[in-house]
Structures are given as structure tokens and as C-alpha cells.
Amino acid sequence: MVLARRAGADERPHRIARLRADRLAAGLPLLDLSDSNPTRYGLGAPEALSAVAAATVRASTYDPDPRGPLPSREALAALRGGRPDDYWLTASTSEAYSWLLTLLADPGDLIAVPAPGYPLVEPLARFAGVGTVSYPVHYLHPHGWWIDLERLDALVQDPRVRAVVVVSPGNPTGAYLQAAEQDRVVEACARTGTALIVDEVFGPYALDGRPSSAAATSGCLTFTLDGLSKLLCAPQLKLGWLRVSGPAAQLAEVGRALDQVADAFLSVGAPVALALPELLALAPGSVARTRERLRVNLATARRVLDEQYRVRRCDGGWTFLVDVPRYLADDDLAAALLDAGLWAHPGWLYDLDSPGALALSLLPEPATFETGCMRLRAAVDALA
Hints:
By secondary structure, the protein is α/β, with parallel strands linked by helices. The protein folds into two domains: 13-44 and 283-381, Aspartate Aminotransferase, domain 1; 48-280, Type I PLP-dependent aspartate aminotransferase-like (Major domain) (Aspartate Aminotransferase, domain 2). The protein has 13 helices and 14 strands. It has helices at residues 15-25, 47-55, 70-80, 93-104, 121-127, 149-155, 179-192, 228-231, 248-265, 270-274, 276-305, 330-339, 366-381, and strands spanning 31-32, 87-90, 110-115, 131-140, 144-147, 161-167, 195-199, 222-227, 240-245, 310-311, 319-323, 342-343, 345-346, 357-361. The strands form three sheets. Strands 2-9-8-7-6-3-4-5 form an eight-stranded mixed beta sheet, with helices on both faces. A four-stranded antiparallel beta sheet has the order 10-11-14-13, covered by helices on one side. The model has no long low-confidence stretch (mean pLDDT 95).
């Protein structure tokens, strides 16, 4: 049997992943400092499942719409702006990316993605037969991150680059797209006919910075992504959405083409789609509870770790970066932490070019989080 190369069937687990699997298989304890699954930490809105259950009765009749139920899109437009017809419901942000790769790029084309960044778009692009090219996002402590706009401008000159992905705030950088950056990115995309994809799933979770939004623009064709996974801490509900904006002359054609893609998948379950208006009403309370958890834990990280290490500026999101003393190479450091019963993502996983950086989750219960930070400091100090 021969499988497609783009399926990644020949990829083998990294050494650190194998060591982690061996430890778990042996039944040894492991505190995962990078776990970003909110359902394990008592976050979200317990009423969400009841809202979906209540909508099940209304789902007994199948009435498909490639964009999703109109009342749900009306609720999104009332909350986020625009018209109901500007929105498409998807099963997840990942699926929204896959639809846009189908819509915007042919095999052999390219999508520009930020580096450092979460390794999501790259495999999705590979599955679609599309390549990726990265533009740098730089860091200066304690001021924060900024996009290398000159590099990005050079990339979009290549006609093979069909879209630019911006994540605001970034994961794991936590950096919001700033207004001046947005203006430059939109201008570059408009000038070259390149689409802009803005992922705002972590948008409400401001920490060191102030939230910003590029939810809609008339300057270039723009697709804005969001969903319940982060908004309600409910990845299991499997509902996301994308909003389309841009020059009026392009929107009708884009809408027809995106309808065809969505109609071929029809992937969103009717109960959760119909429950969206009620679910959106739960979002303010869920976001407030989660944001407070994030702020408490970030303050703890600085209190425990900043004395000897460096906790980087984190404008928003669920993850922060800490630079630890470079006693070992990154993979050896991760292995040493495993020996100490700790798991943390090394920076290279996100294309960070600075060794000694670890990406940690801000979601755990505060007592567990503080214990984890103290154990991390002790484990690293023991390597000196």
C-alpha cells in the first residue's frame, strides 16, 4: 500500500515525544505544564451542554444551509458586527482553515504564516497540497513583539503566496496585531491581491496588553476566524465560524465559491449550530472567569520565576513563554524535565529561534500552577 506523502504517514515521533510516551506507559506521574485543554481545569460554562441538549428537539427536522442556521448567524452579526450573510459556521477553526485553503490556493501555492507560531496551519496546508512560508515576528523585552513588515511585504510580491495568516493574539507569543501593523498588512495584501486570514480565537483574553480586533476590513479580502473552543472553553462542542469582509466587488463571487465548499462538507451538527444564540449569551461570564484564572497564574509565574528567569510579555491568550538558564540544549532540557516528572513544550516546537524558551499553559488551577512553577524552577536549578 502506498499512501500520499502529504498525509505524513512516514513521519516518526520526535525523541522527546517517545520519552514522554514511555513514561506514561510505565505509569509514572507526569505534571503537564503545557496542557491547554480547558475541560480539565473546571473552566467554561456548565450550562452550555444544557443549551445544546435543549436545541436537539429543534434539530429533528433537517434543513441544511451551507452558511449555517440564519438565527445563529444573526446572533453572530449582532455580537460581532456585519450582516448574517457575512458568516459561515464550521466544525472548528481547523476546518475553517481547510475550507480557506481550498478556496484560495491551488496545489503548489503558498500561505504565509507567522514564526514563531502554533504548528497548525502547516499540516493543514500540507493535507491540501499547499506550501507555507514564514514571516518573522520579533521580540524585545519587556516591550513585546512586532511583525517583520518588510519581510512580509517581500513575501506577498510572490504570486504563489495566496494568503497571509495573522493570529491575534498569537500563540504562544500572546501578541495582538497592532493598528499600525494591521494598516500595513492590509495595504500589502490589497496591493498584491493577497487574502488576509485573521485568527482571533484568543482575542478576549487580554493580559499585559489591550485587546485589538481586525475582525473586518474593506481594504482587502479578509477572513476572520473564531469559535466556541476558546470563547466558552468548549472544544468538545465543535463549532467555529468565519466572517468574510473586503471590497464589495469581490464579496458576491467569494460567497458563492465558499458556499460550494461549505455545502460539500455540511459538517456542523444541527443541535450545536441551533444553540449558538444561547451559547453566545454565556460567553461574557465564561470569558471573565477564564481571564481571571489567566491573570492570577501569570502573576504567580512572575513571582516564582522572574527572579532568576525571564517571563516574556504576554499581551493575551492562554500560553506564556519563559526563558530559563541554558544549561542544556532544548531537547536535553525537555528530557531532564521529564525525568523530574514535568512536561513542557520547548520553544522550537513553535519555531522560536531563541534556545532555552519554554511554552507553559496558564489554565491550571492556581495551586497546581504554583506547584508546577516551583517544581520547574527546582528542576532547572538542579542542572546548574
